[in-house]
């Protein structure tokens, strides 16, 4: 039914435009299609083939987590009626191509059932975005707002991530800009996850409390060389979040960055059992990095530290504000694993080189250390990646990403409790092997 609806909308728009251009005497149709709502409309069709693989034994015997799917996306963006109001719609259809047990941890396919059995893996389809948009502009002042289901990428303390589809939220958001200053405000109460067409509410980590809503605000300043961004947000009665991001370009080839993220526990967080908590009362993650860019190569090196105390266990800074949410995080410590345990110092380096036109090959390396019961735990990973993205020619709308990585860490008490599982008083080593491919292609239809 949804397929028929979206095809009908597309056909109506296309036929109306063609009819108007070939029948100039029809004043009514010309008036409608000459309106900016239609004239400035864009309609894209894109595809994504995504495969993810992980082999690990941190919380159980050695297991393979693998999922493979194909996504088709229709994205319609209208112009603005009276230069004020518009309507955007995104429709996604995902087809399952393959899955192993534990496929659900890859967040690509819908888990239709209990547990992690590969037979639960299903495709899905959904209207990922459907929202009204408003804009008001003046010489130096502008206001843009959205109401309905929409993506929120790095908006306040909230974000949206893209696998086969991108997760979306139900609520409203707005940005008021004056010259180089922007003030943002957002309110959301439910989500459509990346791997599902099912509307879900935000939940506490133990899934016993529903988070009624998340409120966030942001104040940012940006010019050619400097960006200052502070965000504040609250998952009602659960977590309070702060995020401060700084970026400075002293010379054209160099960028200096810092990120500071903090979480504070509220009532419903405090009532959870200790094994479901990420930290006791509060957690902070501090990070800085420097990047140098040349024409055909670049290097970025970062250092980070986490403070997340948890009594008789390993606490950590959790990026998200509860189950079914995605939290803003632009530090380098989140890679194949999250290097944000209490007392952990992590060194990260990202090197890229363009061996030929439109192709970048690189290394992404993380190494972290922290103490637990007089034992110094060391963990890290090395990832090799390649991105081919032609800027012109026949394949200018194509991009191919592939990466492969090896990591080493330690066995944990469970998937939700990352405290080391000791044997004879010592942590046990746990290696990982991972791989991923993403193939994107986009068609401009209107």
TrEMBL record:
InterPro entries registered for this protein in UniProt: OM_porin_bac (IPR005318), Porin_dom_sf (IPR023614)
Q: Which UniProt keywords apply?
A: Signal, Transport
**Record's keyword annotation contains Transferase:** no
Output the superkingdom of the source species.
Bacteria
Q: Does the keyword Transport apply?
A: yes
Signal peptide residues are 1-20
Family, as annotated = Belongs to the outer membrane porin (Opr) (TC 1.B.25) family.
The name this protein goes by in its record: Outer membrane porin, OprD family
């Amino acid at each position: 039914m949804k397929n028929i609806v979206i095809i009908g909308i597309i056909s109506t728009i296309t036929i109306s435009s063609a009819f108007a251009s070939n029948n100039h005497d029809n004043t009514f149709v010309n008036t409608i299609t000459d309106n900016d709502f239609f004239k400035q409309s864009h309609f894209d069709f894109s595809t994504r083939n995504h495969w993810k693989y992980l082999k690990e034994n941190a919380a159980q015997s050695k297991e393979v987590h693998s999922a493979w799917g194909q996504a088709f996306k229709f994205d319609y963006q209208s112009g603005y009626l009276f230069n004020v109001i518009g309507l955007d719609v995104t429709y996604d259809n995902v087809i399952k191509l393959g899955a192993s047990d534990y496929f659900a941890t890859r967040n690509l396919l819908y888990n239709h059932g209990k547990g992690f059995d590969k037979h639960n893996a299903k495709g899905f389809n959904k209207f990922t975005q459907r929202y009204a948009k408003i804009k008001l502009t003046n010489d130096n002042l502008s206001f843009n707002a959205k109401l309905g289901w929409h993506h929120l990428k790095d908006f306040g303390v909230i974000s949206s991530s893209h696998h086969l589809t991108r997760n979306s939220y139900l609520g409203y958001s707005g940005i008021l800009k004056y010259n180089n200053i922007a003030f943002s405000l957002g309110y959301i109460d439910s989500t459509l996850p990346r791997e599902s067409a099912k509307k879900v509410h935000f939940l506490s980590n133990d899934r016993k409390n529903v988070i009624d809503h998340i409120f966030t605000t942001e104040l940012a300043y940006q010019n050619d060389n400097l960006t200052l961004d502070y965000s504040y947000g609250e998952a009602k009665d659960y977590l309070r979040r702060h995020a401060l991001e700084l970026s400075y370009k002293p010379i054209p080839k160099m960028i200096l960055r810092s990120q500071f993220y903090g979480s504070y526990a509220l009532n419903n967080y405090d009532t959870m059992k200790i094994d479901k908590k990420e930290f006791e009362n509060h957690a902070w993650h501090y990070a800085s990095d420097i990047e140098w860019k040349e024409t055909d190569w670049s290097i970025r090196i970062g250092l980070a530290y986490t403070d997340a105390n948890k009594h008789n266990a390993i606490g950590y800074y959790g990026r998200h504000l509860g189950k079914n949410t995605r939290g803003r995080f632009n530090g380098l410590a989140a890679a194949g694993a999250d290097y944000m345990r209490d007392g952990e110092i992590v060194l990260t380096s990202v090197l890229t080189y363009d061996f030929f036109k439109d192709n970048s090959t690189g290394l992404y390396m993380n190494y972290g250390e922290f103490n637990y019961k007089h034992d110094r735990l060391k963990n890290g990973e090395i990832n090799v990646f390649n991105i081919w993205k032609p800027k012109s020619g026949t394949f200018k709308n194509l991009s191919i990403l592939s990466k492969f990585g090896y990591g080493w860490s330690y066995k944990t008490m469970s998937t939700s409790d990352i405290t080391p599982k000791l044997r004879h008083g010592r942590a046990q080593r746990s290696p990982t092997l991972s791989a991923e491919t993403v193939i994107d292609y986009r068609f401009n239809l209107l």
